[in-house]
Amino acid sequence: MEDISAKNPRHIAIVMDGNGRWAKDKKKPRVWGHKAGVTAARKVIRAAAEANIEVLSLFGFSSENWRRPKKEVDHIFSLFFDALSNEVEELHHNNIQVRIIGSRSRFDLPLIEKIEATENLTRKNTGLVLAIAIDYGGQWDICEGIKSLVEDIHSGKLAADDIKPTLFSHYLSLGDLPDPDLFIRPSGEQRISNFFIWQLAYAELYFPNVYWPDFNEKEFAKALDFFTSRQRRFGFTGEQISKSGEGYA
Ligand code: IPE
Ligand code: MG
Fold it and tell me: Among 63, 67, 180, 244, which has the highest number of CB atoms less than 10 A from its own CB?
């Protein structure tokens, strides 16, 4: 039988958008939507693990989301804390490696400790890598990468001439993993919104017309179908790719 999993994306990055509008449609407070968003995340994590996806990155809170009312921000962080507490055992049991990416400088100590405990517990797991982006921004990531790179140049570990895209990638969040092949943003918005800037260079972009709380296993399967129907060219011509017999290179 044909191995269709070979054509699945290795890394899927998702902006979990539309919680507030989903709640508004139902005449509920925005926080209701965020809670439903956690349930959707749980479904998608399971679906990704079952589809043998290597990396799933979920954008939960951006560097810019601090501009929201304090009450909403506090609520999102408390949901995040509770989700980590409640889910860590099951994630670990399912061999999932959890990584939290973004700046931790504004987090309180209990949250930092919770993140560290979760990452330490799951560090050696060999299944799905689940990266959750919290207080993350693609521009922040690139600046942090540049800072480390400059340090390595100052210490003599690196010469300016050594800088190449493949090398710089390693200075970014998830630099040890494949870049996203598939970017998903539900809710009708068609923007990257400062998620992975560098890492999305060759990603297929998919914008399903549902709010994140309605994004379920069926929507996930549709996203995989979208991806497998694309012919990825990476700068080659269509003819070159067809001749390779692979469908994509
Ligand atoms: C996404 O849903 C969750 C976060 C950014 C924390 P939104 O809260 O952005 O929902 P909308 O876009 O207002 O519907
Ligand atoms: Mg939004």
Answer: 180
- Closest-CA residue, ligand 1 atom 6, reads 61
Residue ranges for the chain with pLDDT beneath 70: 1-6, 231, 244-249
DSSP string, 156-187: TS--GGG--HHHHHTTSTTTTSPPPSEEE--T
Question: Rounded to an integer, what distance in angstroms lies between the CA atom of residue 39 and that of residue 35?
Answer: 7
Long-range (24+ apart) CB contacts under 8 A made by 24-27 are 25/211
List, as one string, the DSSP characters of 236-247: S-HHHHHHHTSS
- Determine whether 141 is an active site residue: no
3-state secondary structure of 61: strand
Query: Hunting for tokens 């560090």 — which residue is that?
Result: 123
Helix axes 30-50, 70-93, angle to 10 degrees: 20
- For ion ligand 2, residues whose CB falls within 5 Å: 17
Q: What is the DSSP letter of 5?
A: G
Whether residue 193 has its Cβ less than 6 Å from ligand 1: no
pTM above 0.90, yes or no: yes
82 is catalytic: no
pLDDT at 245: 56
Going by C-beta distance under 8 Å and a sequence separation of 6 or more, which residues neighbour residue 52?
5, 8
| C-alpha of 185 from chain center | 11
Binding site membership of 216 for ligand 1 (Cβ less than 6 Å):
no
Q: CA 234 to CA 23: how far, in whole Å?
A: 40
Identify the CATH homologous superfamily for domain 11-137+180-243: Decaprenyl diphosphate synthase-like (3.40.1180.10)
Asked if 7 and 247 touch (Cβ cutoff 8 Å), the reply is yes
